[in-house]
Amino acid sequence: MVRKRKVKAIVILGVLLLLLYGKNLIERQSFRKISSTFTEVYNDRLVVESYIFDISERLFLIQKLIDHCDLSYDYSKVINEITDHESAIMAIVTEFEQTQLTEQEASYLSDFKTIIQNDLNIKSYDLLFTDSSGVNQNQVKIYDQKISQARKDLDNLSSIQLQEGEKLISKAKVLINRSQIWAQFEVALLIILVVVMFFMFFRKSGTSDFF
């Protein structure tokens, strides 16, 4: 009878240990997912938001050059300066494209890229200004409209970063809460394990009918 109780106790101990091992495996997977989620928040959302900010700054400088906002500025190299800003923007866009893009992001980024590459690709300063006519207001207005459209794309991209970031943070919270539940489960298993070991090794046979 004592032998039977001990075998039963050993079986229970084995099951408890297997449950603890399984719990640890699940918790490791959960921690990997949490780590991956926060990495995604940083690389694909926070870093991308800095890309958008840098692009917006350069787009603002392009608009200032096109609009001739500073009358004391030397505009003799304005096309080269605009080209440099656009090249810098395209370099950032290339890095942007290497992140995890949603379908909407890809669409807005593609539209923005087209505007920079095609619509704002100014070949001649005469399109903006001539000595005889001054600033070409009609052409400048067209460029300003394209820049406004590009800014809308950037605003939409920025909104997506916020939305996707909130989704990722919510996902991380779910994983953390689940991990806390598993931690409580582990504590319960350990208590049961202690109780089983107590009855197995410290209670005299015949003083308990637990097994």
Overall description:
A hairpin with a 3-residue loop joins β1 and β2 (134-135). This protein has one domain: f41 fragment of flagellin, N-terminal domain (Up-down Bundle). The protein has helices at residues 2-67, 78-97, 103-119, 137-201, and strands at residues 129-130, 134-135. By secondary structure, the chain is mainly α.
Write a short abstract of this structure.
Keywords: Membrane, Transmembrane, Transmembrane helix. With 211 residues, the protein is mainly alpha-helical. The protein is built from four helices and two strands; from the N terminus they run αααββα.
User: How large, in whole angstroms, is the Cα Rg?
Assistant: 32 Å
Strand content: under 5%
Mean pLDDT: 81
CATH level 1 name: Mainly Alpha
DSSP helix fraction? over 70%
- How many helices? 4
CATH architecture label: Up-down Bundle
Secondary-structure element pattern, one letter each: HHHEEH
Count the strands?
A: 2
Main sheet: which strands, in order across? Answer: 1-2
What is the makeup of the main sheet?
Answer: 2 strands, antiparallel
**The CATH topology:** f41 fragment of flagellin, N-terminal domain
Tally of individual domains: 1
- Helix-strand makeup class: mainly alpha
Shape: rod-shaped
C-alpha end-to-end distance: 9 Å
**Low-pLDDT runs:** none
